[in-house]
Amino acid sequence: MEIAWDLALYLTYLAAAAGAVALCLWLATNQRTQGPAVNASAGALGFAALWAFSVAGFGRQSVIQDVLLVASNLAWLWMLYRLFGYDKRDKSLGPIRPVVAALAFVEMMQFALIAARLQYDAEPGAQLLILQFAFTFRLLLCIGALVLVHNLYVGAAQMARLGLRWPAAALGLLFLYDLNFYTVAYLDNGTPELLEDLRAVALLVSVILLAIGVVRNKSELRFSPSRSFAFQSFSLLLIGAYLAVMVVVAQGLAYIGSDYGRILQAGFVLLASAIALTVLPSKRLRGWLRVTLSKNLFQHRYDYRSEWLRFTDTIGRAGPQATPLLERAVQAVADITDSPSGMLFTPREEGGMALAARWQWPDLDVPGEAISAKGAQFFEESQFILDLDDLRPGRQDGIPADACPAWLLADEASWALIPLLHYERLVGVVLLARPPMARQLDWEDFDLLRVVGRQLASYLAEQTSQDALGEAQRFDEFNRRIAFVMHDIKNLASQLSLLARNAEKHADNPAFRTDMILTLRNSTDKLQSLLDRLGRYGSMGGKEREEFDLGALLGKICGLYADRHTVTLISDDTCSVKADAEALEQALVHLVQNAIEVSDENSPVLLELRKESGSAVIEIVDSGEGMSPDFIRTKLFKPFHSSKPGGFGIGAYEARELVRAMGGRLDVESREGLGTRFVLRLPLSEASDMLRVMQDNSKEVA
Question: So where does this one cross the membrane (predicted)?
Fold first, then answer.
């Protein structure tokens, strides 16, 4: 009987301590709790829990529990004072602070009495006197605290009483119990053991009253811990119960008293430990635990905030070590249902769906057409999530066989099919493997998987769009290069065509034949240069720059058109630049050719070269029809827009890009009916060197 009573007291102290700790942590971490005494209440509960643990662990006669009891009483007193701030009375009632300070001083005298007890431990008379002082001080504390509790509740406004009644009741119960306890102790000159044993019950009831006061309405009274807290707490509870059973059975075997008692005890502990090591790590047991707790403790199966954060983290994972997006998409769905593996099927060009990604499922053989076109159409139109366990017994219920082919039904590990739809268009289907703790999917599973499926579909559609855009950009770059090549070939073809027509008239002229050979050689060199440049059009002037004289280059260009049109260099300052001579010649030829094509036969194209503010300025002037301001602003430097019939519209664009690549600038002035002036500016060699040094210095500073 005595053993049962001691065990009941031990468990009562543990329950009181655990309840105080739980409420303390809830008050300290919950953002919904408000009020001036929240932190003080959490602190008081924490010290009370420490005191209860010390009694359970060290006994009622230990010095540790005496010290923690003083700390706990001081914490309860501080909580009582902070409760006066509920309706701001702690600022208007002056006598409160002196009373609280006096009571705190009286309680702190217990530290001196504890030290005196330790010093005079061998003298019974001194011990009795010290106990009398300790009981007296505690009586003063209880009386003063009860007076404060009374004033706290009676003096509060009517609305404030609704929030104060439960804390006031808890504090009143604690101090009233201690008043009776220390009164009996003072009269008997000793500690009443029964009342001391029941102090844990008083603390436990006070914690319950405080908990009711914290959550005052029905919705708050609903038990709603986080899922991770519930799973971990329940696991600890199971482990604790297991250990308690082990201890009880082992002690019972030891109390048998036979010669085999110790052998039975050791054998039981060994067997129980082996069972624990075998069963506790089981995934099936953990799955059963999660399902059981979700069904019985929570209104919803899923913690949607945690699921969404995990989903976002899985999909948003990046870096060279991250798995491909398609595999992460399967994992994101599988994590929701605790599935160990999965697959993703995506549409084929020929129709139907094919395997696109596996996640931790390498051994399942998948045919080339995993789902037929009719099955894909069913998922797209119905948006059904299929639980394959419902289909295996033959309960089709209007679901066509194409939606769930025979190879899937034959594999027992296959569990569910989730369609991924983007704007009502099917972009994929996820196949999930059976989780360790299989269950039947319900409406909550369907709702969450449907939302997640749509979100995943948007990610997959975005990746498909990016792939298509990248492919289109590569084709655009290829087409642009071809357009540039065709433009250059067109210019060469014009030169060769003109040469062929003149050859019919002047073939017998030795001077013409000499010039024709030179022209053919130049055309051949340009074609070869064009082939060499074809791989560099993306970089626009990426060739190593060299210093050369612009006057000589402009004279060369004038000589190219000597027999076809008058191109005159009217001013020739000595200008040296560092640039890609070949690319610059190509740009100037484009501009001069365009000027010739828009000018009359008798209207010369004028070139001018001069220095201006550290730059070499080249002007190309024609007297053609000119261009409108709107054309210059919106179309001149846009590819594939031309003012000439049959033109490619890329000469000006290519010329500007080549000049920009060399650090220069190309501007245009034009008036309709009067002509056009292109102005090309390049930094002189000295300015180019200075700019390069400044750029290198800025990089070093950075």
Answer: 7-28, 40-58, 64-84, 96-116, 128-154, 166-186, 198-215, 236-257, 263-280
